[in-house]
Design goal:
Elements: H1 15-23, H2 31-41, E1 46-49, H3 56-71, E2 82-85, H4 89-102, E3 112-114, H5 121-129, E4 134-137, H6 139-147, E5 159-162, H7 165-170, H8 174-181, E6 189-194, H9 199-208, E7 213-216, H10 240-249, E8 257-261, H11 264-276, E9 282-284, H12 290-302, E10 307-311, H13 313-317, H14 319-334
Parallel strand pairs: 1-6, 1-7, 2-4, 2-5, 3-4, 5-6, 8-10, 9-10
Length: 335
Amino acid sequence: MAAEMLQFHEMGLDDRLLKAVADLGWSQPTLIQEKAIPLALEGKDILARARTGSGKTAAYAIPVIQRILASKQCVREQDVRALVLVPTKELGQQVQIMMRQLTSYCSRDVRVADISGKADVSTQRPILMEKPDVVVGTPSRVLAHLNAQNLVLHSSLEMMVVDEADLLFSFGFEADLKNLLCHLPKIYQSFLMSATFSEEVQALKELLLHNPVILKLQGSQLPDSSQLQQYTIKCEEEDKFLLIYTLLKLQLVRGKTLMFVGAMDRSYRLKLFLEQFGIPACVLNSELPIQSRCHIITQFNQGFYDIIIATDEQSLADPTASSQTTSGKKKKKSK
């Protein structure tokens, strides 16, 4: 008989943290959270492979916050105790949002600062002078602040996280990351979170981790190519929306679904069509502000929506195609 899943309230977490988790509607941990959080709370270094949307941000954010809250029980001066490295400013924003949601009942005790944006280093200096407990940023931005002495980590840092580790090298951060390590103390707890175990991630493992626990949670969840099937359905243009509804209603297509359409207005029309039948969906396209797009992805990952309707990027990138579509519509109306 399989062992019962470990629940959040059985992990020895601070009541304020448990309350924030409950507010987020998380009734039980995901697989990566169940495995990683207890190990992290024991002080172990972790290398975890888990796919996007598996809850891996909370898998490191919760133990980071718990450890900071525990350290605040002693009388200690305010300092930067955790560093989260991300490959993009968009991911930095998402991490900060998640951290702030989890610290909603202890925001005075755990302060989080995101410096991954493109603001001038001098503009961000006052934020770092307040010595937030957690700093989130790209390797190049963190290194710039370390070199400018806006950020000092060699004596205070206790935890470091590298999120989406497989993307760091492909985004050109290898040299910055290696230079950054010279500014860190000799002993600190590390977490590497990645969607894949590439050669670059293995190199990071040797560079950052000490006797890590390795969690390979993705392999059993995703089918290999031999298990995938592709189908093509031919139908009349006017029947496409009805066919999509039928596939969803009969549960021939189920679970998390990404739909691509050829034009932006079509994505909104499909969304409205599905909502008539009580099927919620969200629209994602390049015209939406970046914060809106991040919010949509977060809602999709958290289960508010199971369907994203996206517009083909090529049609957005080609202004000629756009103008032809517009003029074509006007002609139809005039007939």
